[in-house]
Amino acid sequence: MSESTVPRxxxxxxxxxxxxxxxxxxxxxxxxxxxxxxxxxxxxxxxVLSFTAILCIALAAGASGAINMWYDADIDAVMHRTSSRPIxxxxxxxxxxxxxxxxxxxxxxxxxxxxxxxxxxxxxxxSILYYVFIYTMWLKRSTPQNIVIGGAAGAFPPVIGWAAxxxxxxxxxxxxxxxxxxxxxxxxxxxxxxxxxxxxxxGVPMLPVVKGARHTRVAVMVYSLLLVPVAVSPYWLGLxxxxxxxxxxxxxxxxxxxxxxxxxxxxxxxxxxxxxxAPARAAFKYSILYLFIxxxxxxxxxxx
Length: 304
Hints:
The chain is an all-alpha fold. Helix content is 73%, strand content 0%.
């Protein structure tokens, strides 16, 4: 990090500041997919251990977010949508945020090992290390494919939840991992289209910055099409029933429709500002709903 771009601590941090370091909006999706992995597993933990496992997933996700904010404080300081975060705003020091993240990481992994099993704890530790070292410190600033390769970081939770319940990893959690992996590029590149000015200002080689908006629109469409068979595969392979299969197909086709809107948007060709990119915003918002409903359908299918 560049110390010159990160304000010194001005004091006055609140509980809300420390909570925001955990990236709660990202955490909510991570916790949900991890809980689904726990729910659809063939064996179940008692409620106390189930809650502990989900808590560990939440702590690990939050810890990764805090370390990410420590490392990216210089970037956050020059991006409009992140400049008010606690570190660039000077309410929490970068060093304190780093210590906070490291402590939470260690606590989450140790608690998972004690409450469930070593396999779940090992995958949890791997998810933290992947997000911090592979995505944050290496890929994000070095390649426009950062989201594609780095997408694995957010795909671990269903595997962790399953492993917490069973002590092993099977085909279904791997498929759920793959779904999140293929979902991440169209989800994040839709965001990158209307936030490209921020990324360019910060020197982050996101796809719209390096390859342009047109290339990014095509990539969003391609990945949404690839996601269709991947999302339906648990049904095709007999691991989920018709409730899930129908939901996955319908939800994925609707996602393709939104991504088609992104592909056919001509505003960049007309020289208009990408900050008001309505189709990309709509696709981004739907992508979040998509993953929640899809994974929810997987859980419902188990009971049906």
